[in-house]
Amino acid sequence: MKVTVIGSGYVGLVTGTCLAEYGNDVVCLDLDPEKIALLQNGGVPIYEPGLEEMIKRNVEAGRLRFTTDVAESVAHGTIQFIAVGTPPDEDGSADLKYVTAAARNIGKYMSDYKVIVDKSTVPVGTADKVQQALLSELTLRDKHISFSVVSNPEFLKEGAAVEDFMRPDRIVIGVADETAKDLMATLYAPFVRNHDRILYMDVRSAELTKYAANAMLATRISFMNELANLAEVMGADIEEVRKGIGSDPRIGFHFLYPGVGYGGSCFPKDVQALQRTAQENGIELRVLDAVERANSAQKTVLVNKILRRMGEDLTGVHFAIWGLAFKPNTDDMREAPSRVIIQELLKRGATVTAYDPVAMHEAERVMSGWKGLTFSQNPKAALEGANALIIVTEWKAFRSPDFGEMKSLLKQALVFDGRNLYDPKRMQKEGFEYFPIGREQ
Ligand code: UGA
């Protein structure tokens, strides 16, 4: 099938590449010439496990191309995915200017039937706006070409995006007519060979499903984070509580890990956008207001522990930080709790040496010019001479360190762990003062 993907960012690249992998003929469009040049020369602008090899394989097979040419890419695909960015406006609502611009471009150049698929995370009602943008362009050209607008939200997790796309737990398709439904069914058939995991529904329900899923997950995390704070002062252990409640199948074990607050490009933005949509329509989402407040407080939970242990003035205190990305297996620093933690420490006169297995380059970019912050090329070197280690991201490589060596490199045997990587009893035996989340030290 001929497919065009408009927007070669994270979602667009993964979508286009995975569709090419199953034999579709895919063109990925982006208006950023540098990004397209990089992709044309075999480079990949984001870090995502398995993506680079898959792109290479499909480019070599002639099934995947990258271009900045709008007319050519609109002409190419019967199915046109819109996977452009929807950055938050000042008021938290999703800015749809790139989505409508993409729709107008399709309207400007299309000459036969197209299915336009909203893949970007867009508020309920966006499909109607896309439809109007297209219609207004067609009217200008005095053309009567038919088309369908479909909502097909993505549920990819960064760091597991290729796997999530290739083996989806569900594919949500909001569609209003049979022709478009058949085309989407054919496109996704190879991804759901063994089970019928495609959920067809009306367009608005599909649009809302995406926000509902992320908001529900964000709620779980914030709830666990607040329970962890309570467990800690009550002398309970949140890790035991987590197992105790997770074994109820109605609750389940996934996504119950307390930590330093959720970050990334999705949860914070989507929670705000959903609140905004609700407000605009006269509905109060009180639970979500609380989720946001809880999350922003959680980002400083580790700092508060540090201040209680080391005093308010951190002048002359040096910290090692392990983990900068908002979660493992990504270099994404958007809304990463590490940014808040480091800023708070520097503000109080501390110095910081940070290490991350893949996000260092990105971190240097977003934290450039932060006085008192340096980066280390390996985790051990970061520990040298530090008064304490702070763990912010749960990379696998941090799970089994040589504690003896860790102790000898640190100036003080102090570990503040925002991800509960170690057993408190073991840490005590190893001679550390250990501060996890939601469990007694
Ligand atoms: C999230 C959703 O999980 C995807 O289903 C969705 O498609 C995606 O947003 C999106 O809208 O594009 P992602 O932001 O990549 O994916 O990352 P998650 O793995 O969901 O983690 C989000 C944040 O929650 C991270 O900061 C993570 O550290 C935190 N988290 C997650 C916890 O603190 N505890 C948990 O138990 C799980």
TrEMBL record:
<feature type="binding site">
    <location>
        <begin position="155"/>
        <end position="158"/>
    </location>
    <ligand>
        <name>substrate</name>
    </ligand>
</feature>
<feature type="binding site">
    <location>
        <position position="158"/>
    </location>
    <ligand>
        <name>NAD(+)</name>
    </ligand>
</feature>
<feature type="domain" description="UDP-glucose/GDP-mannose dehydrogenase C-terminal">
    <location>
        <begin position="320"/>
        <end position="424"/>
    </location>
</feature>
<dbReference type="Pfam" id="PF03721">
    <property type="entry name" value="UDPG_MGDP_dh_N"/>
</dbReference>
<comment type="function">
    <text>Catalyzes the conversion of UDP-glucose into UDP-glucuronate, one of the precursors of teichuronic acid.</text>
</comment>
<dbReference type="InterPro" id="IPR008927">
    <property type="entry name" value="6-PGluconate_DH-like_C_sf"/>
</dbReference>
<feature type="binding site">
    <location>
        <position position="210"/>
    </location>
    <ligand>
        <name>substrate</name>
    </ligand>
</feature>
<feature type="binding site">
    <location>
        <position position="121"/>
    </location>
    <ligand>
        <name>NAD(+)</name>
    </ligand>
</feature>
<dbReference type="InterPro" id="IPR014026">
    <property type="entry name" value="UDP-Glc/GDP-Man_DH_dimer"/>
</dbReference>
<dbReference type="InterPro" id="IPR017476">
    <property type="entry name" value="UDP-Glc/GDP-Man"/>
</dbReference>
<dbReference type="GO" id="GO:0000271">
    <property type="term" value="P:polysaccharide biosynthetic process"/>
</dbReference>
<comment type="pathway">
    <text>Nucleotide-sugar biosynthesis; UDP-alpha-D-glucuronate biosynthesis; UDP-alpha-D-glucuronate from UDP-alpha-D-glucose: step 1/1.</text>
</comment>
<dbReference type="InterPro" id="IPR028357">
    <property type="entry name" value="UDPglc_DH_bac"/>
</dbReference>
<keyword id="KW-0520">NAD</keyword>
<dbReference type="GO" id="GO:0051287">
    <property type="term" value="F:NAD binding"/>
</dbReference>
<dbReference type="Pfam" id="PF00984">
    <property type="entry name" value="UDPG_MGDP_dh"/>
</dbReference>
<feature type="binding site">
    <location>
        <begin position="255"/>
        <end position="259"/>
    </location>
    <ligand>
        <name>substrate</name>
    </ligand>
</feature>
<feature type="binding site">
    <location>
        <position position="263"/>
    </location>
    <ligand>
        <name>substrate</name>
    </ligand>
</feature>
<keyword id="KW-0560">Oxidoreductase</keyword>
<dbReference type="Pfam" id="PF03720">
    <property type="entry name" value="UDPG_MGDP_dh_C"/>
</dbReference>
<feature type="binding site">
    <location>
        <position position="327"/>
    </location>
    <ligand>
        <name>substrate</name>
    </ligand>
</feature>
<dbReference type="GO" id="GO:0003979">
    <property type="term" value="F:UDP-glucose 6-dehydrogenase activity"/>
</dbReference>
<comment type="similarity">
    <text>Belongs to the UDP-glucose/GDP-mannose dehydrogenase family.</text>
</comment>
<dbReference type="InterPro" id="IPR036291">
    <property type="entry name" value="NAD(P)-bd_dom_sf"/>
</dbReference>
<feature type="active site" description="Nucleophile">
    <location>
        <position position="266"/>
    </location>
</feature>
<dbReference type="InterPro" id="IPR014027">
    <property type="entry name" value="UDP-Glc/GDP-Man_DH_C"/>
</dbReference>
<dbReference type="GO" id="GO:0006065">
    <property type="term" value="P:UDP-glucuronate biosynthetic process"/>
</dbReference>
<feature type="binding site">
    <location>
        <position position="86"/>
    </location>
    <ligand>
        <name>NAD(+)</name>
    </ligand>
</feature>
<feature type="binding site">
    <location>
        <position position="30"/>
    </location>
    <ligand>
        <name>NAD(+)</name>
    </ligand>
</feature>
<feature type="binding site">
    <location>
        <position position="35"/>
    </location>
    <ligand>
        <name>NAD(+)</name>
    </ligand>
</feature>
<protein>
    <recommendedName>
        <fullName>UDP-glucose 6-dehydrogenase</fullName>
        <ecNumber>1.1.1.22</ecNumber>
    </recommendedName>
</protein>
<dbReference type="InterPro" id="IPR001732">
    <property type="entry name" value="UDP-Glc/GDP-Man_DH_N"/>
</dbReference>
<feature type="binding site">
    <location>
        <position position="334"/>
    </location>
    <ligand>
        <name>NAD(+)</name>
    </ligand>
</feature>
<dbReference type="InterPro" id="IPR036220">
    <property type="entry name" value="UDP-Glc/GDP-Man_DH_C_sf"/>
</dbReference>
<feature type="binding site">
    <location>
        <position position="269"/>
    </location>
    <ligand>
        <name>NAD(+)</name>
    </ligand>
</feature>
